[in-house]
Amino acid sequence: MTTDTLAPTPLNPRSWLYPTPRGLYCEPGDFYVDPAFAVARAVITHGHGDHARPGHRAALATPETLAIMRARFQDMPDTAQQPLKYGESVKMGEVKVGFAPAGHILGSAQAVLAYRGQRIVVSGDFKRRPDPTCPPFEPVPCDVFITEATFALPVFHHPSDAGEIGKLLRSVATFPERTHLVGVYALGKCQRVIRLLRQAGYDRRIWLHGSLLSLCKLYQDHGIDLGDVAPVSEAILETFKGAIVLCPPSALADRWTRRFADPIAAVCSGWMGVRARARQRGAELPLIISDHADWAELTQTLKDVGAPKVWVTHGREEALVHYARSIGIDAEALHLAGREEEES
Description:
By secondary structure, this protein is α/β, with parallel strands linked by helices. 21% of the residues lie in helices and 24% in strands. The strands form 3 sheets. A 7-stranded mixed sheet has the order 7-8-9-10-11-18-19, covered by helices on one side. Strands 1-2-3-4-5-6 form a 6-stranded mixed sheet. The longest helix has 14 residues, at 161-174. It is globular. It starts with 16 loop residues before the first strand and ends in an 11-residue tail after the last strand.
């Protein structure tokens, strides 16, 4: 008489990591990943405001992300801060937690969670193209890959960064009597645009709106050379003719712009490929420079990580879910609270 041996039931990833009103909760580790509200224990993928929020009793993040949070949040001294470098890991409850580079901004990371032989990667926000301000994205083989979907439509194919910076520099050369006001998100986009300008050979002073100063200094303190930058407020006799001035996109419609010489408004964002968005922002010179993966990069990433399951968050989930299923991946939308559309 023989007895059939039953194969063990595969672990359901939803049994240990699942969405809640506060955010993505890891039960055996008793922590949240990028929670939408203050919690007891948080794992933070990067410093943008829809992922890193104040008030947690304890936060695990890369050293750079913790520095960004300290710069942005007054109550961070009340948070127990645990830095974790790329490639290192720590045990939280029954779960092993590690970080891999996400290529999004300084300190951005993918949270790599391992539990009972199963690995889930929470990508946070990411991009695949080189960025002189942060390490490149590293594909991590896993059982479940959680991906953003900000630009998850086939129409989104971001052009080369060098080509877009070239458009800006050609405009500066063509209109030497005018000031180029460039709208950039304060964290990540600003510093990346400065480094791209330097890589293109632009060595003149770049002027900054006051709200961009503290994070530029933080980047410089972390070894990112921005060259000659100075606040607009320090200029006394400067006419700003032929100058490049970086500012938040919202400042382009502010009275602050009146001090500049016949300004040309430029905006750096992945959304500048959409004409209606460019008009809405008042962009005379739209520059398609995004800190998120485009459609080709998103779909290539699904192949690179090789996960049989994919959960899709914040953005155009339906198209990416449909694509993933078409190539044999078990995919679903993972609706998370608190995700916002930033200046991408």
